[in-house]
Amino acid sequence: MLKRAILMLLPASLLAVGLSAGAQPFSLEELIAGDHRSEANIARNDFRNPAETLEFFGLEPDMTVIEIHPAGGWYTEVIAPYVRDQGRFYAAHFSPNSAAGFQARSLAGFEEKMVANPDLYSHVTIRHLLPPHEMAIAPPESADLAMTFRNVHNWIMAGQEHEFFQAFYAALKPGGVLGVVEHRALPDAGMDVMETSGYVTEAYVKEVAAAVGFEFVESSEINANPDDPTVHPEGVWTLPPSYRLGDVDREKYAAIGESDRMTLKFVKPAN
Length: 271
Description:
- It is built from 14 helices and seven strands.
- With 271 residues, it is of the alpha/beta class.
- It has a single domain (4-267), classed as Rossmann fold (3-Layer(aba) Sandwich).
- Strands 3-2-1-4-5-7-6 form a seven-stranded mixed sheet.
- Helix 11 packs across helix 13 (202-212).
């Protein structure tokens, strides 16, 4: 049963949904625009298409789900409440043992966010992911679905993309699904591009996934942006929401919008 605190947070559309114990109180469409989300986060919905993306990956409210490196929790705001009552949610976040200071700060901010709204996030389990030392992001072969949003380029830059995908493979059940959204490089882009620009080729993501045992299922153009040429002075961070060039050509990059993105679905073989 929802507590009074959450009733004050959510819009009237959510209050009309059945709230009996064990029922599924939220739809994805209601959650992506819920009052528990900031205006800035809601503004990204048109670029990130969360409901369509999660439906493509096959998210159901009774699943055990892993969100990989959720950063500030943009997707957590949608997924965690959706599976709160019937499923399980693991956040495979940065480690406090990371040598990168921003990762520890990001983890601390995420933890504060979870504590600040227990009605939505008290069932979130935070695990730390720091290959090769911290790899257990959920009990072995326990998860139905693991998802990562715009993170693969970071792992390539660290030279650890295979270790990360191994962690996902170990945590998923046989038949479990891995969903990947990533900034999409031009098909002929080399490793020099992928190691510096934030853009990655679809072929390379499929190669890394296959190397650890995943099978490719299908792709979607849900998050495609044909207006993005993918070649920018400061890589993907030239575009919104980063705007690394500041006011230089800001209108030009705002008109492009967020990056062109691949949306890929993989499965861990049932056998």
